[in-house]
Design brief:
alpha+beta; 7-stranded mixed sheet; 5-stranded antiparallel sheet; 8 helices
Length: 432
């Protein structure tokens, strides 16, 4: 079945036109003898004019026709093509049925064009199954020759719907077809279903640019399906672009703010880590300094044991007793006894002297240097006796006889100035 054929003398004829498109009547080709010399515009096989019981006029292939695309088209497909052509003419365009492209690269069901020939548009009736890839390829072939396309179907959401510029049509009780799906509008940051309009009105919008095919990028609001391509007024496409640009800018600012906060957090974390490392280093250094100070203090105290021993023996004539180490109650200094009486303290810690200054007031403090003497004097009671001993003979004052007290006898009757004076081990001092 076809509505277009080629007459040997008249050229292209159209069964749906009252004058066949060439100024001739239908009766000039229908039931004439001999048969009218008409052939298929697609396969060049002979055709003859026919009319259906309902009065529809068309051309049918003669018996023995080869496989032809026009011969396989259904009545529903032909009727939809007629509706498309009629609606295109009502919308103010020129419309031709079954127009072949250059070198047969494509064939338009209905080729609509404006009277001035500025634009051409293929109106495709697609009722049979087809893949999205195939329909996309056919669209691209027509587009390559400067022909845009609109695909029409009355099927419920075929798989290719929305992959190419397309709409769904439906017959209404009042007659004619209405576009029920394919139009959309952008509102509130989303695409939503557009209005349902008569087919001729939709084509008028398309031909005048009031609606254009648009590759949707924004989200959709139910019940609109997430189709890739929609028909929409240009201002809605612009609103989507502005909205998406705004959203992109907002997301970019959010990302920048997030990066800024992350950078600040990283800087704070690095600062905290550095602070902790510095504190750990300072603690280690302080512990090292403290340990070194303790070690130095003990060394000074050990070095002064013999000079202090000799100093006290010379002053008192008695072997003193030196404690094993520093005591906290004497500012970590080493206490020295004469008999059971506390006589002096060796190298107390200067910073702790203030707390026991009254206890030290009656004692002799032994130090290893003038600098240490000044430091302790700054914390001690005024007039505190502080003796600087460096272990040399000059640092030891001459012996002074105690008044009102006889010196204690030395072991085995030895003289105080004899060899026993050099014995200051703790074991000997504890057994005078």
């Amino acid at each position: 079945m076809a509505f277009r054929a080629v007459h040997a003398q008249w050229g292209t004829v159209f069964a749906h036109l009252p004058d066949l498109g060439c100024g001739r009547s239908w009766e000039a080709v229908w039931r004439v003898r001999p048969p009218a010399p008409i052939t298929c515009d697609e396969c060049r096989h002979s055709m003859h004019a026919k009319r259906s019981p309902s009065g529809l006029r068309f051309f049918a292939h003669a018996p023995g026709a080869p496989e032809c695309a026009l011969a396989g088209e259904t009545l529903a497909h032909h009727l939809l093509k007629l509706e498309l052509a009629a609606a295109a003419r009502e919308a103010g365009a020129h419309a031709e049925l079954e127009v072949r492209g250059p070198e047969g690269a494509w064939r338009a069901d209905v080729l609509a064009s404006d009277p001035a020939g500025v634009w051409r548009m293929a109106l495709e009736a697609q009722l049979s199954p087809i893949t999205a890839d195939d329909i996309g390829t056919r669209t691209e072939r027509m587009q390559a020759d400067g022909v845009s396309s609109v695909w029409f179907s009355d099927r419920y959401r075929p798989p290719w719907f929305g992959q190419v510029p397309s709409v769904r049509v439906k017959a209404v009780d009042s007659g004619g077809l209405v576009v029920v799906e394919g139009l959309a509008k952008f509102s509130g940051g989303q695409w939503e279903e557009g209005p349902q309009v008569p087919l001729a009105e939709f084509l008028r919008w398309v031909f005048t640019g009031r609606v254009v095919p648009h590759r949707r990028r924004g989200p959709v609001r139910s019940p609109l399906q997430a189709r890739l391509s929609v028909w929409t007024p240009p201002q809605y496409a612009q609103q989507e672009a502005a909205h998406l640009e705004k959203e992109e800018r907002r997301k970019r600012l959010e990302q920048e703010e997030k990066r800024r906060l992350l950078d600040e957090e990283r800087v704070r974390w690095e600062f905290l880590q550095e602070h902790r490392r510095r504190e750990a280093s300072e603690r280690a250094a302080a512990q090292g300094d403290h340990a070194a100070a303790i070690h130095a203090l003990r060394e000074r105290q050990a070095r002064l044991e013999k000079p202090a021993f000799e100093f006290i023996r010379r002053e008192t004539g008695v072997h003193p007793f030196v404690e094993d180490g520093g005591a906290a109650e004497f500012a970590m200094g080493v206490p020295v006894y004469v008999g059971m009486t506390l006589y002096g303290v060796i190298c107390p810690v200067a910073s702790r002297v203030a707390a026991i200054r009254d206890r030290l007031a009656a004692l002799v403090v032994f130090v290893a240097s003038e600098r240490e003497r000044r430091r302790i004097a700054a914390h001690a009671c005024p007039g505190q006796r502080i003796e600087v001993l460096n272990g040399g003979p000059a640092a030891v004052p001459p012996p002074r006889q105690p008044t009102g007290q006889d010196p204690l006898p030395l072991p085995d009757g030895e003289d105080a100035s004899g060899p026993e004076a050099d014995r200051y081990s703790r074991r000997d001092r504890m057994n005078p």
